[in-house]
Amino acid sequence: MKKISSLLVFLLSFSLASCGVESEPEFEVQLKEDNTYEIVSLKGDNLYKELVVPSEINGRKVTSIGQIAFTYQTKLEKVTLPTYLEEIGDSAFMHCINLTNITMPSTLKKIGNSVFESCTSLSSVTLNEGLTYIGSQVFSNCTSIREFNFPDS
């Protein structure tokens, strides 16, 4: 009976995956000195159209997204960043060519170099109050940007 139920779970998982049903994303994380997490990468390659990066994992706040964490996730269209996010590392979303929408939290202080470089479908950008650093070439080759909103500060 155990072998049959294991086989059934495998077949169901395979069937859902082949029908395009997205599973919950899993993230590789690194514990930082301040006991918060940095997202290092997304487990599984190029699986998601929409991604909500959690504000907490295992009771610890997610405060940064590391360098190249989501680079070349070409199916990705929409990203919601975590509530406590303070920093996005260099090239974190580089070449996410279908990314059209990203929501940046008010806590974001630093956007590294080339973060959204070659996100050719990104059409509107709103930067938050409190942002203290924007790296070079952050929006380089983002050929679809039609609206750019800067904070008052």
Question: In brief, what are we looking at here?
Answer:
With 153 residues, this protein is of the alpha/beta class. 11% of the residues lie in helices and 26% in strands. It has one helix at 2-18; strands at residues 27-31, 37-42, 50-52, 56-57, 60-65, 78-80, 87-88, 101-103, 110-111, 124-126, 133-134, 147-149.
pLDDT < 50 runs, ≥5 residues: 1-19
> Termini, distance in Å?
65 Å
| Mean pLDDT score | 86
Number of helices: 1
Oligomer: single chain
What would you call the structural class? alpha/beta
Strand content: 25-35%
Principal-axis shape: globular
| Helix-strand topology string | HEEEEEEEEEEEE
Number of strand segments: 12
- Taking Cα atoms only, what radius of gyration do you get, to the nearest Å? 17 Å
Instruction: Specify the helix fraction band.
Output: 10-25%
> Major β-sheet, in short?
7 strands, mixed
